[in-house]
Amino acid sequence: MLPVSQRHLAIYERVSNTSKHAINMFDTQLGLRFPLSNHSSMILNMLTLMCQPDDQPLPYDGTIDVLDKLIKLAYQKLSDRKTSLNYQANVDTKIDSRLGRVDLSHR
What we know:
mainly alpha, 3 helices, flat
């Protein structure tokens, strides 16, 4: 819809259910162990929608409170080094290739 002189300012890409477009909504921003408040709200909203019955306009009573506590508990547990998740190779090839160029042996 842009004029020819401005078409370089936008791109169109059809999103599909492939590994190229996959995201993990539970990932935190780089360097953070807990999601920021707006990210935490998004996670809560998504999980609440997944728990909502198809035939009702609202989730069951207490669903939001339980999910909120579970989300906080999960991030608390995984923020501890003893129970944190380890890096998994072959998930993102760009990260794998960059890590291959860095010497991590001295750390």
